[in-house]
Amino acid sequence: MVSLLPRAPYLASLPKSASSSLRPSPPAMSSSSSAARAEAVARPRKLPVLLFDVMDTLVRDPFYHHIPAFFKMSMKELLESKHPTAWSEFEKGLIDENELAKKFFNDGRCFDLEGLKECMVRAYEYIDGVEDILCCLKKNNYEMHAFTNYPVWYQLIEDKLKLSKYLSWTFCSCRTGKRKPSPEFYLQAIDHLNVDPASCIFIDDRMVNIEAALSVGMVGLQFKNAEALRKDLCALGVELPPLVCEGEAQVQ
């Protein structure tokens, strides 16, 4: 099992109620935060909270194959010709897509922005077996959030794959202004969720992002494939019985 634990020991038998794991509320809160925390107090909160990376953990990332093909370049050529920080600035919401188009390439060459977006949408698809896991977790009432470095184009993923059936797009870099593996991004999530970090399981395909999660006390799972993820989650006490998801035929 590729499972990494924070320095503080993580108990396989996690608390079933938010009352034992929620930290004291800060003195000043927005009305929306107050409402969310009031709801958490009003009903038991099932733990752990699951934080999912999106690209190459839930959804296939078009960057490595489809985007170079769109530009008729090899990956090496694309990496050498693209602007070194334009995409990360777009992911953090510092520039919009029109500004991205102007500075995507170092030489400022023009390209078909809408065509690029259409290429990416065609490539978006669930990684094999992952949607079944999300469905089972949802049916077992686990709280799930996206925790992803992605620009406003996350809405293109949502429009095609409807991830919000299973999780909330709570922590997107374009909305928070922070990117993994910055510890500030993880600490912001812990504060927003108002849970002990050891009650959060973070799943990502990149080890550097897992290490950042461990540094703030979260539990980390490196994603390899859906079968391994199911086993790793079960080993941590997460309830994942085989379930028939919506739209599937029941075998009588």
From TrEMBL:
Protein name: FCP1 homology domain-containing protein
Pfam families assigned: Hydrolase
Gene3D superfamilies, sorted: HAD superfamily/HAD-like (3.40.50.1000)
InterPro entries per the UniProt record, alphabetical: HAD-like_sf, HAD-SF_hydro_IA, HAD_sf
Upper taxonomic lineage: Eukaryota, Viridiplantae, Streptophyta, Embryophyta, Tracheophyta
PANTHER family: ALPHA-D-GLUCOSE 1-PHOSPHATE PHOSPHATASE, FLAVIN MONONUCLEOTIDE HYDROLASE 1, CHLOROPLATIC
